[in-house]
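Could you help me review a protein record that somebody else here produced? This is what I was given.
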Amino acid sequence: MERTLVIQASKDTKYAMFNDFVNGGRSVSRAIYEDGFLKLDCDIVESHTFGFCSLDIPIDQTHFEEVDLSSYSRLEIELAYQSDYNDTLLIYLDNQERNQHGEYSRANLNVVKPQQGMKLYQLYLDEFYVPSWWFLSHAQTAYAKTKFDNISSIRLASGDNDRARHVQISFRRVKFTGKLIDETSLYLTIILIWLFIGCVETVRYVILVQKNFAKTRKFARRLSEVNQMLLDEKDKLEDQANHDELTNCLNRHGLNGVLGKLNDVLMNENEPASVIVLDIDFFKKINDKYGHDEGDRVLIKVSRILLQSVRRSDHVVRWGGEEFVVLCMQASVSDAERLAEKLRCLIASSELLTGQPAVSCSFGVAQLSKGNFVEGFTKADAALYQAKQQGRNRVIVAE
């Protein structure tokens, strides 16, 4: 059984428009409801700032309250897209949050290569990611993973093309879908049932122990088997929670446990540590040209090269999408640079796409200072950006 949440365009649909006017730009946007569509027309004008326009649609159209979408797994959005030039469409799910610094909105992003005309796009929530520009502008927020527990709106924005152009986005409907009971909750329910059964059996057999010692020994063996089954299931759930299902690399949750050990090493043993951030070049084009299944196979092959090539003390993390992080324990920045160059050559020389041109990666490397992973990661991410700007398929060490 599934749960659904649907927003259908109508003349009563509430929305908000934004464009680069807020940054001093000169783009002009307007929205109307017509023939079953909520249409955004935007004339993007070149200026000193990046030109864009967006249409924000509240998830709760009645009370305008935030909605918990963490139990939903995918969304289907039906829209028509027109642009003068090749472009992308940015789809954001804005999550409202608060910390000791105040309130802020987390940008959960999925980039779509739209086709001209009316299309139905299906997106999975685990394909969304927090863009690096958001993480860098919210340095006080150490948690950089996507969150969907307090979503205020879905935002449709013009894409990455920086040319002056006319863009029209015609929204008809969005549908969120998810299971009524997620897999983790089901596992926990089963475990609780097993625990309850174990308790009942314990009480029953304790009463009978004085009458039949043989039955008590049989119960003890049975209880031991149940306990071992629970421990095995617990270990399995912990491993699933800490690793990316597709690549078997650590996920960001798994990285949090490693960072505690890293801080102990940096603070107490005075050992150096470094971080490598890498990104598969032109991965979006691979997905668009060969399909997401082939893209997943490329991710699996790249992660296999990483896991087989790093040292036992290093940790490989799938940061999000096509981006990976290698945490190099007890390694200077020179050691990390040599490792990054080795990985770059291995990936570039491997046949990741059967019978197709080679796939490459760009790398950023930085030294980690005591107790501050975020600072080192930020430098490595900036170095990765330089590698992209300088032509890709290269290693750049942060200054």
Summary: The first helix runs from residue 132 to 137. Residues 242 and 257 are 9 Å apart (CA to CA). Helices lie at 132-137, 183-208, 213-242, 252-269, 283-290, 292-309, 333-349, 373-389.
